């Protein structure tokens, strides 16, 4: 794997597995939550495949990713109700960035939390951005072994409980065939307040 997500930006939107993941994640979201006119945050948005789908129903979408080239690809799509932030998530960013106020009705994190340096701390930061009654939705690969990418359901439960997002459900809404293997995706849907 490359050292930088920037290296994947140009071909990301033509990757069939990436497209399928975004489509299935979006469908599993709208099957469970009403998102019309909501204020949404797409954390780790990449090139915005999920952001662009959210923008069809949400009132506004703020998309954040540390990869400048991924954000460039998203910005080239010129989606009217999508604003972008090129940055890692930090307390300083939360405290000082105008796009992160007011708080959000929905925060999504699609196949990203397994790649952050500190999963519990990241979810703790994201929770600060949620208004009362908001939803946090996470999709990640189901970890097949101790060394695999993704999470076990117990790992997700521990983190959500640890940050005070106690009202949540876990499911396996879809899987993808990649390199002759079926990879399952776990979805966590947490309601705050």
From TrEMBL:
MF (Gene Ontology): transferase activity
UniProt key word rRNA-binding: no
Annotated keywords: Transferase
TM spans (from-to): none
Domain Methyltransferase type: start-end pairs: 41-135
Gene3D superfamilies: Vaccinia Virus protein VP39
Coiled-coil regions listed in the entry: none
Keyword Transferase appears in the UniProt entry: yes
Entry-linked InterPro entries: Methyltransf_12, SAM-dependent_MTases_sf
Classification via Pfam families: Methyltransf_12
Record's protein name: Methyltransferase type 12 domain-containing protein
Record organism: Solemya pervernicosa gill symbiont
């Amino acid at each position: 794997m490359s050292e930088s997500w920037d290296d994947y930006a140009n071909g990301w939107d033509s990757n069939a597995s990436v497209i399928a993941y975004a489509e299935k994640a979006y469908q599993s979201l709208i099957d469970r939550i009403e998102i019309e006119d909501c204020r949404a945050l797409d954390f780790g948005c990449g090139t915005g495949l999920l952001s662009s789908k959210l923008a069809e129903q949400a009132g506004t979408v703020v998309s954040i990713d540390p990869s400048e080239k991924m954000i460039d690809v998203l910005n080239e799509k010129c989606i009217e109700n999508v604003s972008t932030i090129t940055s890692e998530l930090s307390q300083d960013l939360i405290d000082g960035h105008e796009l992160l106020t007011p708080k959000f009705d929905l925060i999504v994190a699609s196949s990203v939390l397994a790649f952050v340096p500190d999963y519990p701390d990241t979810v703790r930061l994201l929770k600060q951005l949620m208004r009362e009654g908001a939803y946090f939705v996470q999709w990640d690969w189901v970890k097949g072994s101790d060394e695999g990418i993704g999470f076990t359901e117990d790992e997700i439960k521990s983190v959500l409980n640890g940050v005070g997002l106690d009202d949540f459900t876990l499911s396996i809404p879809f899987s993808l065939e990649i390199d002759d293997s079926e990879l399952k995706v776990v979805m966590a849907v947490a309601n705050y307040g």
